[in-house]
Amino acid sequence: MLRIKRVYCEPSVRDGLRILVDRIWPRGLSKNKAHIHEWRKELAPSNALRKWFGHDPAKWTGFLKRYRQELTESGGIDALAKLARQARGNMVTLVYAAADERHNQAVALKEFTKRVK
User: Fold this and answer.
1) Please, are residues 104 and 98 in contact by the beta-carbon 8 Å criterion?
2) Which one of 16, 53, 109, 114 has the largest count of C-beta atoms within 10 Å of its C-beta?
3) In terms of Cα–Cα distance, which of 83, 87, 52 is closest to 67?
4) How far is CA 53 from the centre of its chain?
5) Tens digits of per-residue pLDDT, 85-110?
6) 36 SS3 class
7) Domain span at residue 71?
8) Phi and psi at residue 38, in whole multiples of 5°?
9) Cα-based distances in Å from 94 to 52, 63, 91
10) What whole-number distance in Å separates Cα of residue 98 and Cα of residue 4?
């Protein structure tokens, strides 16, 4: 099972494996407090894409398309497939730092894993 959660929210044993999917470490958060098991930078959007998107909901559809293309071109599809396998039969929580809980890379990755074999 794959869940998403903001990294600044209190970690829980129900989170299972906590995977950070940001390219940059979350501001003001120690590694001990974050309780991150894996940091998967290869799944994060590029800095250019992240800056273009700027968490603007009006750009969400374009972000999804560009992000998926970026993952495909960079070989990130293999990393996405690994993530999908990890989530089969196990609790995996994708953690992210963005304030917008509906328009971020963790939401996109969760959707993308539904289409990976």
Assistant:
1) yes
2) 109
3) 52
4) 15
5) 999 989 999 999 999 999 999 999 99
6) coil
7) 2-113
8) -140, 145
9) 22, 18, 10
10) 12
